[in-house]
Amino acid sequence: MAEKILFYTHPMSRGRIIRWMLEEVGVPYQAEIMQFGTTMKDPEYKAVNPMGKVPAIVHGKTVVTECAAICAYLADAFQEANLAPPIKERGDYYRWMFFAAGPLEAAVTNKTLGVEVASDRERMVGYGNYTEIMSTLERAIASHEFVGGYRFSAADVYVGSQIGWGLQFGTIEKRQAFVDYYGRLSERPAYKRATEIDDALVREIKAAG
Fold it and tell me: Which tens digit of pLDDT belongs to each residue from 103-139?
């Protein structure tokens, strides 16, 4: 019997990224809906993720947190889903997934919080400046249909989620390359299934008050 995947999430969190990834993988999983400030901070859950945040997965005896790490893990654990390129072709796959997890997220977060890095201090931060990050991201997705090259991969789940979230909330510039790229990804059946599930959960939460 295959080891089950236990998926800790909340529908208004980065857990939406992993829901999409799980739907792409296409294996059964059990979702546990955690609550901010309560069950996420319980000792039982903090034994899974000491940060007390979602998402996290438990697969057999393996615990993985952090969205990019979970996406990469699932792609390797379920190779039959073809969500990671052959090892010799993984340069762009790794590069852009972790670019999005590091420099991109840091730049977007700082801009959202109104943190301005002085031009003479840009060498001290991993992303340099926000404008440079946007242009680098644009070049990464403008030259191919997918961020890792010629085929869809787990990197698109992660990078695409970052772009989609940013476009929705105005934290990523609405450049045409971003709009087109996210538009392609959001037509995927797995994306639509995941979105329907989480949107239904959001409605339930709001209805419950």
Answer: 999 999 999 999 988 888 888 888 999 999 999 999 9
- The whole-number pLDDT of residue 44 equals 97
Strand partners, 9: 33
Calpha distance 142→137 (Å, rounded): 9
Confidence of residue 185 (pLDDT cuts 50, 70, 90): very high
Query: Which of the four pLDDT bands, split at 50, 70 and 90, describes residue 43?
Result: very high
Report DSSP state, residue 3. Answer: P
Q: Where are the alpha helices (DSSP H) in 78-104?
A: 91-99
Contact 156, 85 (CB under 8 A): no
DSSP SS3 for 8: strand
Supply the mean pLDDT for the chain. 95
CA distance 160 to 147: 9
Whether the upstream peptide bond of residue 103 has omega within 30° of 0, thus cis, is: no
Q: Which tokens hold the place of 131? A: 């404008």
Q: What is the pTM of this model?
A: 0.95
Burial class (CB in 10 A: 0-12, 13-18, 19+), 37: exposed
Nearest to 168 by CA among 186, 187, 152: 186
What are the percentages of helix, strand and coil residues in the chain, rounded to 5?
A: 60, 10, 30
Residue 33 phi, psi (nearest 5): -85, 115
